[in-house]
Amino acid sequence: MAENEMMHRHKNEDKMSSGMIWTTVISTFFAFFVAISLVGLSFYLAYRGFFAASASVAVGSIAAVISAFLYKSRKKREFQ
Questions:
Q1: What is the pLDDT of residues 12-47, one digit of tens each?
Q2: Domain parsing of the chain, residue ranges
Q3: Is 66 within 8 Å of 55 (Cβ atoms)?
């Protein structure tokens, strides 16, 4: 009985671990895609002559990435 419970728990932990890894990979891919898209949009706006909008998109994108990184770093530090 206890061995079955342990096997069931291990199987559930393996599923959860693989799910977390998959979520991390997908999140990283989409974050990269969004960042590249925003860089492309910024260049396109500059090419079309909308320099203020281009600068806004570029600065906003950089600020979002930095704030997400800082938020994650603080959360990681709190749990240690």
A1: 887 788 888 888 889 889 988 998 999 999 999 999
A2: 2-79
A3: no
